[in-house]
């Protein structure tokens, strides 16, 4: 469900805590958006890239930092404290009790040390992860972006709706465990629906994925 996009600056640090006590953590960060009371909001999203029920948070003068999360009143749950650009300290009370990254460097000691248990990395099934072409719809230039789970040779083909190949490329050494991109020129193609075909090969392993996209000029 990520990456998450915004037409504004994101202010660090990014805090991670289970604010509503549902067993899953939310991310808290500053977002440089102007509104009627200042510049900068506190944005909160969950692990599914959905906005939290109390998000965004506003304050007079706006915010350029997400502040700090801790149990201020020793009642067992968490508070979020943040100072605004107008010199006002705001505190919000949340029912959650677990926090894994509470503020700058994760502690008043500024150690930057994570005290929780790290999960073992999971090996993804298959060679190809998510893939798409942007912008959508394509006007003149389009960029194919794909995630490669393992080392492989990748072949990209652009097909019309009949299945005729109108363009493509082969990548011999794309980067594994990372997003890869390659651009295509569609200035000579007419408006319509086309097919993006991505094929990955690694020895005897082979995987092919298709996706429709539109060209609109």
UniProtKB/TrEMBL annotation:
Residues 133-205 form the Secretion system C-terminal sorting domain. InterPro entries: FG-GAP, Integrin_alpha_N, Secre_tail. It holds the Pfam family Por_Secre_tail. This is Secretion system C-terminal sorting domain-containing protein. Keywords: Signal. It comes from marine sediment metagenome.
């Amino acid at each position: 469900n990520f990456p998450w996009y915004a037409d504004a600056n994101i202010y660090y640090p990014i805090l991670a805590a289970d604010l509503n006590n549902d067993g899953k953590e939310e991310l808290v960060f500053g977002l440089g958006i102007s509104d009627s009371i200042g510049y900068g909001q506190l944005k909160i999203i969950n692990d599914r890239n959905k906005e939290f029920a109390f998000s965004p948070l506003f304050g007079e003068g706006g915010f350029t930092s997400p502040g700090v999360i801790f149990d201020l009143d020793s009642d067992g749950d968490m508070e979020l404290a943040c100072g605004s650009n107008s010199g006002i300290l705001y505190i919000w009370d949340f029912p959650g009790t677990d926090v894994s990254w509470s503020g700058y460097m994760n502690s008043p000691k500024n150690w930057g040390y994570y005290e929780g248990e790290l999960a073992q990395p999971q090996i993804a099934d298959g060679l190809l992860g998510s893939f798409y072409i942007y912008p959508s719809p394509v006007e003149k230039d389009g960029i194919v972006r794909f995630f490669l789970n393992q080392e492989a040779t990748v072949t990209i083909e652009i097909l019309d709706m009949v299945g005729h190949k109108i363009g493509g490329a082969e990548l011999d050494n794309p980067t594994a465990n990372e997003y890869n991109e390659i651009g295509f020129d569609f200035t000579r193609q007419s408006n319509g629906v086309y097919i993006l075909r991505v094929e990955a090969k690694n020895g005897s392993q082979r995987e092919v994925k298709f996706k429709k996209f539109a060209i609109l000029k």
